[in-house]
Amino acid sequence: MINGISINMYMVLSAILFIIGAVGVMARRNSIIIFMCIELMLNAVNLLLVSFSTLHNDAKGQVFVFFVMAVAAAEVAVGLAILSMVYRNVKSIDTNLMSNLKN
Amino acid sequence: MLSLFIVSGLGVLAMLAEIFKFKKYVFPIVLGGLIGALGALYMEWQTPKSYALFDNMIVFDKMALAFSGVIIVTAFFWFIFANDYFEEESNVVDHTALVLFALTGALMLTAFKNMTTLFLGVEIMSIPLYVLAASKKRYLASNEAGFKYLIMGSFASGFLLFGIALIYGATGSFDIAEIRQYLTDNAGTVPSFFIAGVVMMLVAMLFKVSAAPFHFWAPDVYQGAPTVITALMSTIVKTAAFIAILKLFMIGFSGAATVWSGVLAAVIALSLIIANFTAAVQSNVKRMLAYSSISHAAFMLMVVLANVRSNASVSGILYYSLAYSIGSIAAFTVFYNVSRNGNETVEGFNGLAKRNPLLAACMTVAMLSLAGIPVTSGFFAKYFVFTTLIGTEYKWLLILAVLTSAVGVYYYFKIIIAMYFKNAETTEPVFFETSNKLVVIITTLITLIIGFIPDVITGLFVY
Amino acid sequence: MVKLVGLVPLFPLIGFLINGFFGKKLSKGLSGTIASVAVLASFVVSLLLFFDAQHLPGHKAEVSLFGWISADTLDIPFEFLIDPLSSWFLLIITGIGFLIHVYSTGYMHDDEGFQRFFTYLNLFVFFMLLLVLGNNYLIMFVGWEGVGLCSYLLIGFWFKNTDYNNAAKKAFIINRIGDLGFLLGIILIFISFGSITYGQVFEKAGIVNESVITTIALLLFIGAMGKSAQIPLYTWLPDAMAGPTPVSALIHAATMVTAGIYMIVRSNVFYSISEVAAEVVAIVGVATALFAATIGLLQNDIKKILAYSTVSQLGLMFLGLGVGAYSSSVFHVTTHAFFKALLFLGAGSVIHAMGGEQDIRKMGGLKGKIKVTFITMFIGTIAISGIPPFSGFFSKDEILAHVYEHSPVLWFFGMVTSMLTAFYMFRMLYVTFWGTFRGTHEQAHHLHESPSSMTIPLIVLAALSVIGGALGLPEFWGMPNWMHHHLDPILYRKSVSMLSHETEWMLMGLAVVAAAAIIFFAHQLFVKNRVLPEANEAKLKPWQKLIANKYYVDEFYTAIIQKPLDMIALAFHKFFEIQLIDGIVNGVGNSVKGIGSVIRLVQNGNIGMYIISMVLGIILIFLTLFIL
Q: Do residue C603 and residue A29 have CB atoms under 8 angstroms apart?
């Protein structure tokens, strides 16, 4: 129980957010939106970590969130750099265009 | 422990080289540093204690030191082999630094004792690789490889994190030893979200070692990335990710084996079948080696599946990772030089036995080793894995493994046949840098020596 | 001191590596010197070890070099064993090996494969030393296979000749049959004793079921039959003479072919316990000895005569082993190594002088032309014929005395063998060196003594053939039998002669008189009456024809093994291979490719598709874990 709300509710919420993110990654073709969906998945994790941290009355979970945020930022930075490079080559950010390596 | 600092310090130093203008010296400094790191490992090996860092988040025990040794030795050969890749590209310094950071992550993965350091290790290793895979800026294939790797890697990281969060929720700790304790205390009463967490972490880690059905990224990325980076990914990165799985599941989640062992068995079976069958129809050698690495990952995972913490299993897997890494480095070095003209297919090897007899012989040894033919180290590697599995209920996997290895022999021999029985248009020797020749010869010798005397490695330590 | 044992095989290995990798860049002189010095260095170390080993506690030392193979119950260290037996064999291998290396620098001088020859020769010495030094059956097996490989390479050394290649293949294949028996024996040893280290195995030999011991002993003997050319696996050795003559001397006379004897002496525990196995060894030995000796009577190729003589002498050694006279057999191995190496090298010198001619019918009257060769070969012939006080007399007599004690019938056959030996050896000598020269005019002009690099080894070996008997003087003469005492520590059951001195004197006298009579007879026949071996086969009497054609054993093997196999193979080829096997293999191959090309379609390059299949995998896992 955190502020009168069962921990299960927090878990369900972050699971829903996570699934929305995952479905977004699967369904969308626009690379920028895929990045955003991945961010959403990571933030779902952050929410879960923070709520467990509060539940256990333990600061480690919240510290972990900082690591996650830092890593997510790094991932997105690298991602955008690669994306801009791709854009220079194909003038598009549609993932469907990036399926030359196969079989 | 010192080696971790040395390698990350080298990375920082390499970045400074651009500013302070000692770019030319980066390469010797890195090689020297790696030798220093190896020396540090040796010193720490000699003392009986373990080295703990950051409140036990990283602990260098014997096992961590041994696997760090495998990684650093492989990295040493890799740097010698890859030096002209660095020369070709303009951003030498950045690439060197990125590789060193990836190496830092790999070393962290050998020594983590906490899910925080596991996560950081995985990310520190992966993020530089996303960049390196895409490092041939003007080639669409390279861009695509980097991009695919990044998207799928981040997606898998999401699962890893969600798993960590759920496990943290159940146990209230990130510490591997505490989770192990939690499992023994609460055997049979663990909440289902803990199990969900274990499965999600398993999936994410299986993604990192590219086991089927989470392997899809590997062939594409391996093919698109620059060859030297492919070599890095299929040796060091794979070894490190594998050790992470080994430690996480054989130590941390050993008590929940009923949950994950069935899944793992299915994954191994699927990997063996998909990897070997698909490899047999590949004509691009890089892609073929990618599938071969999937099959090797499946072999290594068998030790995790056996879930027996014994001297035989741990030293067996140490032997396997060394044999596989060294054999792959030799194969990639030869392939890199042969494919300089842009021909990455098996035909590129045609007539190599006449053009460069010694290197063709070395390549043959490497192929035999990867195929697991006796006298080479690959044979004993497989043998040790099989012996760990033989006492378990998964004997059927052994039969599958032997059958699919037979398919494996087919595609490894395709290269040998091309080298010895097919003719190229020219008999001009393929140009090899002296350093590359040395790498090939030394790695081949190691393959043969540890194949002839497996005890050099297996007798190293008592787990 | 014993720690230095690792150096013994190391030197030839280094020689092999140098010649193997840089041979083409070395001059012939340097290459030959390196190879010879490597073996000489081994010899010096072996000599030191030999004397040092006398003072060891228990006369033996186990030197562990490194852990080799250890996995669960299988723990095989790479260990060497120095004991009276191995240290003695070391001396034979490196000593005679060195002389033959020196000889080869002269003999092979004009061959374009000079460096390759020494590469193989050094490799051979390396493996042979490994075979003898190992402290367990696996190292012996590694050496065993290694010498087989080198033998194959050296028989087929002149690989452009198809016949030579076929001879090499024949040697290899027949040896594989023996090796299979040996390997099965090793496996059985491991199963019954839980170890393959000599010491541990022999300790427990007394408590293991005797029928198991018999099986092991027989399996090991099958290995020995292959390597040491005993009936029925002997046919490869005469053909092996296709190799250069120094190879015949080193590998196919002095060392490799005695590996089977070494193995049985090493495992004497088994043969002492199992009387059945010992009896089999004795009978196969005597049969081979007699059989090969009769074939030797009518051979005309100088090397073939020596080859059959080798088979026959090896049979004699096995006869000795079978009756428990282990030290006598090792003694005969030693003296045989001296005089047979001498005879082969002498034959090589003759062939050298004759410009490659090997048929004795085309020689004759050579004794004045090539004096050193003649004198040394004469000594060798006397030694092998058993005339005192030459070395062969003592060793052969010792074996025969033991055989007589065991069974007079076997002794009789042994005696006949040694008489036949004296006859065909003197026949070879008389026909080659007496009479008139029957070669071409060109050959007569060409005749010359070999260079000193070839004659010096001949002289040294001749000296050894003369005095070698001192190693094992008969005890009933009141003299110390050194060999007997030397090998005593490694024998499970000591052999003590029960014969009265009178009997021994009588046996010895009989042997000498018989040999002298035979030699006289040969002299009358070939020198006085100048009878020449019949050149036209049609004029041979039927029994001569039978012998001259080696009893048609090769044809027999061809008829009963090869032909039916060919026929079955053809049938299999037509019905099974083409229709069934090819069908299956191609089917498997095609289905692998088929499955592969289906699976690869999943890999369609689309990231969305990849992620969906990944998620599907996860969903499947969750479904099986939580719902099913």
A: no
Chain A: closest CA distance from residue B214 (Å): 14
C616 in contact with chain B, both atoms CB, cutoff 8 A: yes
The DSSP call for residue C197 is B
DSSP H or E stretch at residue C136 = none
Query: pLDDT (tens digit, 9 = 90+) per residue, C34-89?
Result: 888 888 998 998 888 888 887 877 778 888 777 776 665 667 788 888 888 888 88
Q: What is the pLDDT of residues B151-194, one digit of tens each?
A: 999 999 999 999 999 999 999 899 999 999 999 998 878 888 99
Distance CA C87, CA C328 (A): 17
Residue with tokens 């990375």: B11
Q: What are the backbone dihedrals phi and psi of residue C190, each rounded to the nearest 5 degrees, phi first? A: -60, -40
Tell me, what amino acid is at A24? G
Is C111 within 8 Å of C245 (Cβ atoms)? no
CA dist B331 and B333 (Å) reads 5
Nearest to C605 among A22, A25, A102 (CB): A102
**B202-242 pLDDT tens trace:** 999 999 999 988 888 999 999 999 999 999 999 999 999 99
pLDDT bracket for residue C166 (50, 70, 90): confident
Reduced to 3 states (helix: H, G, I; strand: E, B; else coil), residue A2 is: strand
Helix extents (H) in C468-573: 482-487, 501-523, 542-548, 553-557, 563-571
Structural domains of chain A, count: 1
Chain C CB contacts of B400 below 8 Å? none
**Span B254-296, pLDDT tens digits:** 888 888 888 999 999 999 988 988 888 888 899 899 999 999 9
DSSP assignment string, C585-614: HHHHHHHHHHHHHHHHHH--S-HHHHHHHH
CA distances from C12 to A50, C111, C221, C345, C369 (A): 71, 22, 29, 22, 37
List CB contacts (< 8 A) between B217 and chain A.
none
Q: Which residue is closest to A22 within chain C, CA to CA?
A: C615
What are the tokens at C238?
């005469």
Q: Yes or no: say if B120 and B149 are a contact pair by the CB < 8 Å rule.
A: no
Name the token pair of B206. 């299986």
Shortest Cα–Cα distance, C66 to chain B (Å): 8
- Grouping H, G, I as helix, E, B as strand and the rest as coil, residue C480 is coil
Q: Smallest Cβ distance to B277: which of C596, C611, C616?
A: C596
The DSSP output letter for C231 is T
> Sign of torsion, CA B36 B37 B42 B46?
positive
Nearest by CB to residue C592, choosing from B259, B280, B456, is: B280
CATH of the domain at A27: 1.10.287.3510
Mean pLDDT is highest, among B37-51, B417-431, C161-175, for B37-51
* pLDDT on residue C246: 86
* Nearest alpha carbon to residue B203 among B147, B256, B161, B173: B161
- Inter-chain residue contact A41 with B158, CB threshold 8 Å: yes
Strand pairing class (B51-53; C74-82): unpaired
Residue C454: CA count within 13 A, CB half-sphere: 27
> Is residue B366 very low, low, confident or very high in pLDDT (cuts 50, 70, 90)?
very high
Query: Is B35's Cβ below 8 Å from some Cβ in A?
Result: no
Residue A49: which domain range? 7-92
Least CA distance to A96: which residue of chain B?
A: B144
φ, ψ dihedrals at B416, nearest 5°: -60, -45
Q: Using CB atoms, pick whichever of B148, B199, B278 lies closest to residue C622.
A: B199
C66 contacts B312? CB cut-off 8 A: no
Asked if C608 lies within 8 A of A26 by C-beta distance, the reply is yes
